[in-house]
Automatic annotation (TrEMBL):
Keywords: Chaperone, Cytoplasm, Nickel insertion
Record-given protein name: Urease accessory protein UreD
Keyword Cell wall biogenesis/degradation: no
Domain of life: Bacteria
Localization of this protein: Cytoplasm
Similarity annotation: Belongs to the UreD family.
Listed GO MF terms: nickel cation binding
GO cellular component, one term: cytoplasm
Cited InterPro entries: UreD (IPR002669)
Keyword Cytoplasm tagged: yes
Subunit description: UreD, UreF and UreG form a complex that acts as a GTP-hydrolysis-dependent molecular chaperone, activating the urease apoprotein by helping to assemble the nickel containing metallocenter of UreC. The UreE protein probably delivers the nickel.
Entry function: Required for maturation of urease via the functional incorporation of the urease nickel metallocenter.
Length: 312
C-alpha cells in the first residue's frame, strides 16, 4: 500500500478538538456504496507546445478528472480541469485529498462539475484536504461550485496554497445554508473551512478560518457572523503585478453596482492582493456577485474576461 492509499495521507493533521469530538473509531475504507471513502487526486500540469497539459495524474475513486478542455479564447493556453466525484457527495468517514502542482509558466483553472453536497453524519465527520502550488509566473484559478451542508452534516476542509511571488492565484468558495426547500437553513452540525497561503519558502502570507457550528454552540445568523443573511462567499486574489490598493479599488467599484448583496473588499497581508466577502439571501445573487468580482480581477490581471464554463 502506497502512502497515497493510506487514511493518514488523506486526513488533515492537527484537526481541531471540536472536529475530533465527532469522530468514531478509525476504520479502513469500506466497500462499494458504503461510507468512509478515501478519495485521492494528484495532478501536475506544465506548459507543453503552447498550452498547459497534465503531465502527472493519479486518481483514486471517488475522485477523478477527465482530460482538460480549453474554453478561453483570450487565454488558449489555459487548461480547464473539472474535478468530479462519483456518488452524490460527502458522507461520514470520507477523507478526500487533492494535490495540484502548477509548474512555472502554466495556466490552470480548477473547478468542480457541480455543487458539493454534505450528507448527515451520525458517528463521524468528513474531511477534504486541498493542496495547491503555483510556480514561477504561473496562473491558477480554483473556483469550486458551492457547498451545500445538509441537516446534521459535519465537514472540515483545509485549502493550502503555495504561491510564487510572481504567480497569480484566484481562490473562491461559496457556502449555502442547506436545502432551503426542506427548511434546512443552517441546521448542519459543523462546517469548518481553513484557507492558508504561503510563499515557496514556507512563510505564511495569510490564513482565514470559517467556523460555523449552529444550534446550542453558535448561531450563524448572529450579528458578528452572517447577520440576517444566509449565504457567504469569499474570493482571494493573490498577485504582485498590480498594487494591492489599486486592486481593492477595482473590485470595490465592480461590486458597487451588484444588487441584493452586501460585499466588502480589503487588502491581503503583505500587500499580496485582495480579499472579498459577499453576503446574500439567494444563491443567484451571491454567485452573480462572485462572477462580477472574478471577471473584473481576471480582466485586469490576465487580460481576458471570465469565460463560459459550460456547466449548463
Amino acid at each position: 500500500m502506497t502512502g497515497r492509499d493510506d487514511r493518514a495521507w488523506c486526513t488533515p493533521i492537527a484537526l481541531p478538538r471540536e472536529v475530533l469530538a465527532f469522530g468514531a473509531e478509525v476504520r479502513d475504507a469500506l466497500g462499494v456504496g458504503a461510507a468512509g471513502k478515501l478519495g485521492v487526486l494528484d495532478l501536475a500540469l506544465a506548459p507543453r507546445a503552447g498550452s498547459t497539459r497534465i503531465i502527472r495524474q493519479y486518481q483514486k475513486s471517488p475522485l477523478y478528472v477527465y482530460r482538460p478542455i480549453y474554453l478561453d479564447p483570450g487565454r488558449p493556453d489555459m487548461a480547464f480541469v473539472f474535478l468530479q466525484q462519483q456518488g452524490d457527495g460527502f458522507v461520514q468517514g470520507d477523507r478526500y485529498r487533492v494535490d495540484v502542482d502548477c509548474a512555472p509558466g502554466s495556466a490552470v483553472h480548477l473547478t468542480t462539475q457541480a455543487a458539493t453536497k454534505v450528507f448527515k453524519a451520525r458517528d463521524d465527520f468528513a474531511t477534504q484536504l486541498v493542496n495547491l502550488r503555483a510556480g514561477h509566473n504561473a496562473i491558477l484559478e480554483y473556483l469550486p461550485d458551492p457547498v451545500i451542508p445538509f441537516r446534521g452534516s459535519r465537514l472540515y476542509q483545509r485549502t493550502s496554497v503555495t504561491v510564487a511571488e510572481d504567480a497569480t492565484v484566484i481562490l473562491g468558495e461559496v457556502l449555502l445554508p442547506g436545502r432551503m426547500a426542506r427548511d434546512e437553513a443552517h441546521v448542519y452540525d459543523l462546517f469548518w473551512a481553513e484557507t492558508e497561503v504561503r510563499d515557496p519558502d514556507g512563510t505564511l502570507l495569510f490564513t482565514d478560518t470559517l467556523r460555523l457550528r449552529p444550534g446550542e454552540v453558535d448561531d450563524p445568523r448572529s450579528p458578528g457572523v452572517l447577520g440576517g443573511y444566509d449565504i457567504l462567499a469569499s474570493l482571494y486574489v493573490i498577485c504582485s503585478e498590480m498594487p494591492a490598493a489599486e486592486l481593492v479599488t477595482v473590485l470595490r467599484e465592480a461590486l458597487a453596482g451588484v444588487p441584493e448583496v452586501l460585499s466588502g473588499v480589503t487588502q491581503l497581508p503583505a500587500s499580496r492582493g485582495a480579499a472579498v466577502r459577499i453576503l446574500g439571501h439567494t444563491s443567484k445573487h451571491v454567485q452573480a456577485a462572485m462572477h462580477v468580482a472574478w471577471d473584473r480581477a481576471r480582466t485586469r490581471l490576465l487580460g481576458s474576461p471570465a469565460p463560459d464554463l459550460r456547466k449548463g
